[in-house]
Amino acid sequence: MTTDVTPAPRRQATPAKPAPDRTGTVIVAVLVLGWLAGVLWRLWLGNPITHPIAHTDEDSYMNAARAIAGGPEGFSSETPLFRRIGYPLLVSPAFLFGLDFATSYKIVHVVNAMISALTLPLAYLLGRRMFGLKPWIALAAALAAATIPAGVFWSLVGMTDSIMAPLMLGWFLAIHRWLGDTARKGAAITAGVITGVLYTVHIRGTILLLVYFAFLAFLVFRRLARVRSAALSLVPVMALIVLNQVVILLVGDRVHLRGDIVGGGTLEVFTDGQRLQVFIAAFGTNIWYLCVVTAGLAGLAWVAAALEIFRPAGVNPAERTFRPPGGRDAAFRWTAGVALLSTVGTALGAALILAGLVGLPADAIYSRYVQVFVPFWLLFGFAVLADSRLRTLVRYAIVPVLILGVGGAVIAFRLRYVAEQGHRLGYGLFGGPDIITITAGWKQFRPLVGTAIGLTGLAVLLAVTRLRRLMIPVLALVVALNGVTMAVMRDRLIEPIAARYTLPIDLPELGVGPGDSIGFTGDMTHEGYFVLYHDVYWTELTQLPDDTKPDVDVVIGRYYPGVPFHWDGTKYGYELLGASQDDGQVGVWRRR
Question: Signal peptide location in the record (predicted)?
Answer without folding.
Answer: none
